[in-house]
Amino acid sequence: MIKMYDVVVIGGGPAGLAAAVSAEKNGAKTLIIERENKIGGILKQCIHDGFGLLKFHEKLSGPEYAYRYIEMAKNIETLTSTFVTSVKKINDTFHFNLVTKDGLLKVTSKSLILSTGCRERTAKQIFIHGTRPAGVYTAGTAQYFVNIMGYLPGKKTVILGSGDIGLIMARRLTLEGAEVLGVYEAKSTPSGLQRNIAQCLDDFNIPLHLSKTVTKVLGTERVEGVIVSSLDETMKILPNTEEFIECDSLILSVGLIPENEVAESLNITLDPSTKGPYVDDFLMSVDSKGVFSCGNALHVNDLVDYVSESGEIAGKNAANYSKNFEKNSIKEKVSIKKGNNILYVVPQYVSKESKEFILYFRVNKVMKNKTVIIKDTENIIFKKKYLFLKPPEMEKIVLKINNPSQLKLEVI
Amino acid sequence: MLKKIQKKLTKKISKDIICSEENGAIKLEGEVNTWNKVYLSGKIAANSSYRGVINKLKVKNLNLPSISKPLLKDTKLQNKKVDVLIIGGGIIGCSIARELSKWKIKTLLVDKEYDLAVHTSSRNDGMIHPGIAPRPGSKKAIYNSRGNKMYTKLAKELDIEFNRTGSLILYDKWYLKFALPLLKIRAHENKVRMKFLNKKELKKREKYISAEIEGGVIFPDAGIVSPYKTTIAFGESAAINDVEFSLDTIVTNIITENNEIKYVETNRGKLYPKIVINAAGVFSDEIAEMAGDRFFTIHPRKGEIALLDKKKGHMLYSILSKPSLNFKSTTKGGGLVKTVEGNILAGPTAIEQPFKEDYTTTPEGLNAIINKHLKNIKGIRKTDIITYFSGIRASTYKEDFIIEKSQKINNLVHAAGIQSPGFASAPAIAEDISKITIDILKEKTRVVKKENWIPKRKKILTLKDMTFEERNKLIHKNPNYGEIICRCEEISKGEIIDAIHSPIPATTVDGIKKRVRAGMGRCQGGFCAPLVIKILNEELSKDILEITKKGKDSYMVVEETKRDDKNV
């Protein structure tokens, strides 16, 4: 017997758990599929605090935050250590092939929520050259070594990239007795949140070097050092600025890439600026109805609270979609265009019938005292002043609309 | 002859070079100021009737790092007597080992690394060349065409993936078509099948080929294997048939007496072989020198290679290359290859360099690959690259294989100077080296063939390629096959455990990667490396701190974190 669900959620991290809880609450028969042996996603290894300020109005550690949702989801059917090998859409029904320790399994569903999170960009994807010794790890892998396994990936570490995980790891490694020689950032401004710069670097006297990057790794068996070069404003390497730094490890925090291989297998095109599917305000893919996307698979978020929020939206709408499965028709949509200085906007489309929805966006450079406006054709329907706008910080707007015809977001 | 070359070197390179004759070869000594001069001198000397070049030229102020050696020192092999000692666990050594395993003799293969196929044999494109490139009559030409044919049967026996996809030489200017008759003559001389393809026919075979391509030639007999999996398969087949393997074993000296090798010194004891086979790749000239039979020089030629995300794999079917018209280009060769695992591979470049183990990659090399090859397929980009690496060809100045019984040392056989098309040639080289070896051995002792030789070797199961029923059955038998460890390549814990317990066991993170691909996908081991370490730790009963990436002291983690119990 092939089991049929209203909603199947791929990925049991913060987005997937929130989505499943919200789908179930809205009356959908829901299944969570998680490839690891425990649900909770990357939060399991994020033992630092600062999670949940928006959602629960208190400071929680990653595992504590995850636990809140694990409790809420405890009655939802969940398959852990389960791997999705393929998803096919036949007559609007999704057919899944799963690998589990108990054998292969097939399930079907009316709708699908992709909460597959993201992976880390590697040394090769940012074109670092030199040798290939042991001791070059992405920050997440290093975090797994330290927080889950209890081992140090190195004792004298250079961190490349000032993304949040890199900053968190700088502090974490220091606390565990490793020497963090410095955090290097190719851009002229840090990539991580300001609070992490203060709490993870400044408080521990770890230097942050801006406009500098690692160009070469040295060492045969283990890392023996790295070459660091300065960059100009256009991120070009400045000649004769090479500097040798002796170290035994290089930790990279150079960006996250939403994991959307399942989406791509369903012929869903990805937005080049978010690397996630194009969605409407229901967080449903505009390429394939019944497919919802949320969390870091949709776009890389800065706070887990937003990840959960997008999960809730996707879960609720997937449940409603499944309920009205026979009657679902494609709703008329209008696009939300990116104007000046906008890196991306999510969702990229909004249903004409919608009255209110949540919009997330990021800017493409640091700006002071600017106004963000949203136009519907020529009429300004939203206007807000910002003291600061920074690419690392995601912004959220709750937008009220009335029969829009053409939306555009820009910074003036 | 000697005087003529001396004059030429004085005129073209430097007056500080001294030429002499030694062991039938021409020897160069002295000091020059660049590596390029060393290389060019060797090339000039090679253009002579001497059988090889002993290039001992040094570069002023250049201190080369010494060969990487195992850290291990023990007496495991002390006073061991074997019939045949093979030095080198690359494709050549391993295919010879398998060939010799057909005989009732004691064969030992040693390699200085932690695994087989660590150097050149894991650092190439895995192409089974059709045999068009070598100069007609050269050893390369002969062994390539013989070896190529052998792969059909070998792939079945060794249970390796082998795709005879054919290879294409493309041209993008209409006038280049006038060079084609020359190609036809070469094909005829080397007995290689070929066929002309027009734009339309090309497009039919390779849907995503760039619009600039005007036409091409196909060599249908070209194919692709996984170079490291194939090397390991040969090794395992030999191991199943009682060839002994000793890894982490470096030959440090060879002691001869009356033109005969008496014993061989290693870091693991003194060995007494009846015959020694030199299959030491880039170090084969140094092994020859230890045995007092130096007559050639390996000049390391590096090739950088880039590997693209599997997502783009469907955009290529076979092997493409577009010869460059710029003869000064260092990337004359190379192309795009569809690996047996479905990735597109681009490269290699060709750069002469002094150090035999310099596997660094460079922005220049990678950019050369990108600019030259990626544009031949519409829709592949720099951002599709998931990793890149380099390998070093074991080229001699004569640029041909050395496959012969030593002319000086009675019990030494050389299988040296094997560069491209070495992979295609390996099985044929192994046949001949084995024959030479057995003939020498027969003079010393009675040698008979094994009656119970096992031709078949089974590969590690690849569950993702199985049918639903097969895969389900296996998981029910062993739940480890149902636990996915490498998410990018869909590799289960069971497959990784199989690799650890295979005939030549994987004992390192890279060893696992080469056998079952865990860590070879787009995340490059970011997610699975810690899990692989844990499996190695459990299966080998080895402390996590002792688990290495690639042997020696390439430890994955360095220390335990602070623990409460330590502070009590």
From TrEMBL, chain B:
This is FAD/NAD(P)-binding oxidoreductase. Residues 83-434 form the FAD dependent oxidoreductase domain. Residues 484-538 form the BFD-like [2Fe-2S]-binding domain. Gene3D superfamilies: BFD-like [2Fe-2S]-binding domain, D-Amino Acid Oxidase, subunit A, domain 2, FAD/NAD(P)-binding domain. It comes from Tepiditoga spiralis.
